[in-house]
Amino acid sequence: MKKWTGMITNLTMLTQFGLSLVTPLFLCLALCWWLCDRFSVGTWIYLIGFFFGIGGGAVTAWKFGQSVLQHQKRIETEPDGKKKKKRVSFNRHI
């Protein structure tokens, strides 16, 4: 059962990572669409919005990745800062 928990956790993290990449891009392109519709700005604004969206997605993904790595380090170490010893168990149950 532990395998399934780990797999679901990893799948959730991968999905969150993907959403962190795509959401800023969509928000910037939606803002560009609104600017074009409301103020009749030229379509060149979509290029600027695209680059800002990609940049925002990259920064968000970087911060998300760093927080996941910190969380994994926290799990692997004990509260006093020492590395946890891996326990050997021979009675694994399914």
Strand content is: under 5%
Low-confidence stretches: none
Q: Roughly how many Å is the radius of gyration?
A: 21 Å
Q: Order of helices and strands, N to C?
A: HH
**Which structural class do the helices and strands define?**
mainly alpha
Mean pLDDT: 85
Helix content: over 70%
Protein traits:
single chain; 94 residues; mainly alpha; elongated
Question: Can you summarize this structure?
Answer:
The protein has 94 residues and is an all-alpha fold.
Describe the structure.
This protein has helices at residues 2-39, 45-76. It is mostly helical and 94 residues long. The longest helix is centred in the N-terminal third of the chain and has 38 residues, at 2-39. It is elongated and about 70 Å long. The mean pLDDT is 85.
Task: Write the topology of this structure.
Layout: H1 2-39, H2 45-76
